[in-house]
Amino acid sequence: MTYRQFLSELERGNVSSFYLFEGKENYLKKEALNKLKDKIIPRQYEDFNLHFMNANQFTGQEIVEAAYQIPFNNKLQMIVVQEVENFSQNDEETILKYLKNPLNLTCMVFIGEKVDERRKLYKFFKEKGKIVSFNYLKETELLRWIEERVKKEGKVISPEAALQLYQRSGGSIFLLENEINKLICFVHPQEKIDESHIAKICGESPEESIFSLTEAFRKRESKSALYILNKLLLQGKEPLLILSLLKREVRILLRIKLAESKITPLEACRYIFKTKNNYRPFFLKKAKEYIEAAKNFTQHDLLIAHQKMLEVEFLLKRGKKGEVLLPRLLMDIIP
After folding, report:
1. How is domain 3-133 classified at the CATH fold level?
2. Which pLDDT band, with edges at 50, 70 and 90, does 191 fall under?
3. Rounded distance, CA 125 to CA 115, Å?
4. C-alpha span between 218 and 186 (Å, rounded)
5. Cα separation, 71 vs 106, whole angstroms
6. H-only helix segments in 44-187
7. At the topology level of CATH, where does 212-333 sit?
């Protein structure tokens, strides 16, 4: 199940005796753990009934013995076992034996980034439907997360401000959380966060410059694009990353160009934002900008640009310098 499906289960009061949390989005894992803890353990009992263990430091037998202990005051207890990838085969067998007949007063959460799907423990959790996957959120999911996080503090954020905040954070939830906290304090007692607040509080990041570069490319603003590119290279931004984002822009514009007379903003959204959900007016507005930008290029322009990018990618992977190749590429494709 996804992170959101897990939260929905909690809201309905459905709590299992065990879960496996997997994936690389550690912020959401922490958030899910806190929500689960708040659901089953009263705050005054946390010191007694919340336990953290590690597969590197405890044997399977020690973990099972902890699970069988009666919680303080006969309340529920929660045991969090981290780095489960490091369980030995014997440890795994011991824990599996417990999980087939768990204590109903204990909720166990096993945590790992990449758990081997071939192992018995993983197969058991999958069969029971108790794997919660924490993958990095896509752009539209992160924008929704920003809105919900701001709403939780009694504020609202405009779609334009949410997008700017996302771009400045580079998609890092840890950075987003920090910036949102600063914005909440800054705008109080006002209710709404808009673009002007983002500009005042959140400093420019390399990620923001990357989005500025792709926008300059779409508009064929060669001088601006070269300035931003050189700035990114001086900041030490990886040339292959910059190139991959420029390639993405070319592919989006080419797909739009191939259907230029027919394509609607809704269809363009699916190329740009990838998800198939309903799109709010802000995203449709962004899609219209892409449709307009596609008019700045011919199909031939975009095909040649893509070919040149593939050639530069090959040279970068052979060790050639991006500081030389990328500016020359931009001058060739948007003279």
Report:
1. Rossmann fold (3.40.50)
2. confident
3. 11
4. 34
5. 8
6. 46-49, 60-68, 89-99, 120-128, 139-152, 159-169, 173-187
7. Zinc Finger, Delta Prime; domain 3 (1.20.272)
Q: What are phi and psi of 244, to 5 degrees?
A: -65, -35
Give the confidence band of 303 by pLDDT, cuts at 50, 70, 90: very high
Residue 221's SS3 state is coil
Does the CA dihedral 159-283-2-4 come out positive or negative? positive
Rama region for 130: left / alpha / beta (φ>0; ψ in -120 to 50; rest): alpha
% of the chain residues with pLDDT over 90:
24
Roughly what angle, to the nearest 10 degrees, separates helices 222-234 and 206-218?
160
CATH architecture of 139-201: Orthogonal Bundle (1.10)
* Domain residue extents for the chain: 3-133, 139-201, 212-333
pLDDT digits (tens, 9 = 90+) for 156-169: 998 888 888 887 77
Separation CA 276–CA 325 (nearest Å): 36
- Assess whether pLDDT exceeds 90 at residue 308: yes
